[in-house]
Design brief:
Elements (H helix, E strand, L loop, with lengths): L1 E2 L2 H21 L6 E7 L3 H17 L2 E7 L5 H13 L5 E4 L9 H7 L11 H9 L7 H12 L8 E5 L6 H9 L8 E5 L6 H5 L4 E4 L17 E4 L3 E4 L7 E4 L4 H5 L4 E2 L6 H17 L6
Parallel strand pairs: 1-11, 2-3, 2-4, 5-6, 5-7, 7-8, 8-11
Antiparallel strand pairs: 9-10
Helix pairs in contact: 1-10, 2-10, 6-7, 6-10
The protein binds NADP nicotinamide-adenine-dinucleotide phosphate.
Length: about 290
């Protein structure tokens, strides 16, 4: 079994981006700039956004963090998005999800200029991805593709089973794995809450991608011998031995499943670090006007 080391891979990608940014700056080019909008004080969201800002600093990007209390109105948020759309200093920006219930997330996402939508959530980018046109790919599925690529994992003709159909992970992942490019060319099954006999499907997977948020959902008896298992799940579970009081758990029963796999991602240190690296990659593409010229 080979461990798919997302942390190390993410560091390599970030070093590559940092080298390119240094070159851009040395040639007198503009420093790429990522802005992040954070609403409220949810512990997970605060950590994710802080990590994104720190990563920007580490690789030489400019960054700005715009924070609002969770009482912010939809109108105020939409005005800020309009401002960021028009700000030539900002190459790309994200609005950290989830948003409070009184704000319509779809309306917020659709207000972002697709050219600056480095999260790849705007319907224009989703549509372009489906059509095989240049687009910002959502960071988590893009990170998984990058991991498969950097470990030279064969995907052509393989049966890929994706559990979860969210707009940010499961659905784009299933589409990308079926595309006629590498990594892709797989036959894809997508499973969700109403899938009957989940184990029947997962046992047929050469590549199993799990994005649910239910610790331990995938047990060893659900996995085929030699499968590649990608665990996207990250759930905070109480852990009194940790200073933070919690630890992260994936959707896969790692200890027992790992023995059967050819490759597997750990949690933490698997998909998570790649998500940030791919957001930075999208921001670099935005600065270079690589997706929309
Ligand atoms: P989500 O929007 O809640 O979607 C979860 C999906 O799992 C839904 O499609 C749901 O089906 C399906 N599901 C729920 N219970 C199931 C069951 N028992 N059997 C089969 N399918 C089931 O979650 P998400 O945003 O995609 O995130 C999924 C997990 O990945 C979470 O733990 C999240 O924290 C993590 N995540 C990690 C990263 C990272 O960077 N590592 C990034 C994003 C998300 P229905 O559609 O039928 O409800």
């Amino acid at each position: 079994m080979t461990l798919l080391d997302g942390k190390k891979t993410s560091e390599v990608i970030q070093d590559e981006i940092a080298a390119e940014v240094a070159q851009i700056k040395a040639n007198g080019g503009k420093t790429p700039h990522l802005a992040a909008v954070l609403v409220g004080n949810d512990g997970g969201s605060v950590t994710y956004v802080n990590n994104k800002v720190l990563t920007c600093e580490r690789i030489g990007f400019g960054s700005s963090l715009i924070r609002y209390e969770d009482t912010v109105t939809e109108e105020e948020l939409l005005n800020k998005i309009k401002e960021l759309n028009e700000d030539e200093g900002v190459d790309g920006f994200i609005v950290q999800l989830p948003l409070p219930k009184h704000i319509n997330s779809n309306k917020v996402i659709e207000a972002i200029d697709p050219k600056k939508d480095v999260d790849g959530f705007h319907p224009t980018n989703v549509g372009r991805m489906v059509a095989g046109l240049p687009a910002y790919l959502p960071a988590t599925p893009a990170g998984i593709l990058e991991l498969l690529k950097r470990y030279n994992i064969e995907t052509l003709g393989k049966h890929c089973v994706v559990i979860g159909r969210s707009n940010i992970v499961g659905t784009p992942m299933s589409i990308l794995m079926s595309k006629c490019s590498y990594p892709g060319e797989s036959t894809v099954t997508i499973c969700h809450r109403n899938t009957v006999n989940l184990a029947h499907h997962t046992r047929q997977a050469d590549i199993l991608i799990v994005a649910v948020g239910k610790p331990g959902l995938v047990t060893a008896d659900m996995v085929k011998e030699g499968a590649v298992v990608i665990d996207v799940g990250t759930t905070r579970v109480p852990d009194a031995s940790r200073k933070s009081g919690f630890r992260l758990r994936g959707d896969v029963d790692f200890e027992n499943v790992a023995e059967k796999c050819s490759y597997i991602t750990p949690v933490p240190g698997g998909v998570g670090p790649l998500t940030i690296a791919m957001l930075m990659m999208n921001t670099l593409k935005a600065a270079k006007k690589e997706v929309y010229s």
